[in-house]
Amino acid sequence: MSLHSSILPDEAAFSDFRKECFSMENWVNKYDNNGMQVWVEVPPASKKGNHIPPKIHKIKCKMTIKDVSASTMYDVIHDGQYRKKWDPTMLESCDIARLSANADVGYYSWICPKPIKNRDVVTLRSWQVKDDEYTVMNFSVKHPKYPPRSDLVRAISILTGYFIKPTGPNSCTFIYLSQADPKGSLPKWVVNKASHVLAPRVMKCVHKAGQNYPEWKQQNSPDQKPWLFPEQNTLPMMDPAELSIQRADSLENVDESSKVDAQDSEDSS
């Protein structure tokens, strides 16, 4: 991305994200059960035999949904008010400003497995509906009014998002892909727990959220969907040029590699 180009993703960025969703190169399956699969990316082994754990954590989840439409799952991903109802890991979430008809900037913080410190991110989110396929993706940016907080670790979303493709009028394939730097040396149990336990749990919550969304939305501003109708968006406009990509090396690293899973500690006591 050149200095003079917009920070907003272009068509090539959306295309690259979709390709990554279906790429299998260097991805290792960690979970496969009841129509849900989870992979983690394992970088190619270096010639020097360097086994230092990667700072960048890449995880991909795919779910075959047989009872919820692609359009409903797309609404679930966008609806910030509804997210407060279903997201088990969310601490805070807010939309800060809109950048274009299909992009905004927002803040999100989440709960990490104890005793790991909780994380937060400020991200530029953009979305696209094309040929009945739905794509939502985000990456970390710096916002002057949302600096890192002392009580949370500011993580980095290098590229995170969702790809949803209909397989029928009331069924779809739902893919979540995350490439992130948690800003710190995480113990191996956290990485393992993310792929074996946490990711499947969150995906199940998303699926259930999709099942319950039509009924909930009927009672909560049913005609209000600014992600489909930009004219409904009441967020203040912000010039994308005021934002810059958040680089990982400008944030503090936190060494949590020696932390023990609080759940294991309780079980063994």
Please describe what this structure looks like.
Helix content is 25%, strand content 35%. It contains five helices and 13 strands. The protein has helices at 11-22, 70-78, 80-86, 188-219, 262-268; strands at residues 27-33, 36-41, 57-65, 90-100, 103-110, 119-130, 133-142, 153-154, 156-168, 171-181, 184-185, 244-245, 254-255. α2 crosses α4 (188-219). The longest helix has 32 residues, at 188-219. The protein starts with 10 loop residues before the first helix and ends with a helix. Mean pLDDT is 85; it is low at 258-269.
Please describe the topology of this protein:
Elements: H1 11-22, E1 27-33, E2 36-41, E3 57-65, H2 70-78, H3 80-86, E4 90-100, E5 103-110, E6 119-130, E7 133-142, E8 153-154, E9 156-168, E10 171-181, E11 184-185, H4 188-219, E12 244-245, E13 254-255, H5 262-268
Parallel strand pairs: 6-8, 11-13
Antiparallel strand pairs: 1-2, 2-3, 3-10, 4-5, 5-6, 6-7, 7-9, 7-12, 9-10
Helix pairs in contact: 2-4
Query: How many distinct beta strands?
Result: 13
The description of the largest β-sheet is: 11 strands, mixed
What is the typical, i.e. mean, pLDDT?
85
Listing every helix as H and every strand as E from the N terminus to the C terminus, the arrangement reads HEEEHHEEEEEEEEHEEH
Q: So what's the overall shape?
A: globular
* Terminal-residue CA separation: 52 Å
Task: Please state the CA-atom Rg, rounded to the nearest Å.
Answer: 19 Å
User: What percentage of the residues does DSSP assign to strands (E)?
Assistant: 35-45%
User: Based on helices, strands and strand pairing, what is the structural class?
Assistant: alpha+beta
Query: How many DSSP H or I helices?
Result: 5
Helix content: 10-25%
Task: List the uncertain runs.
Answer: 258-269
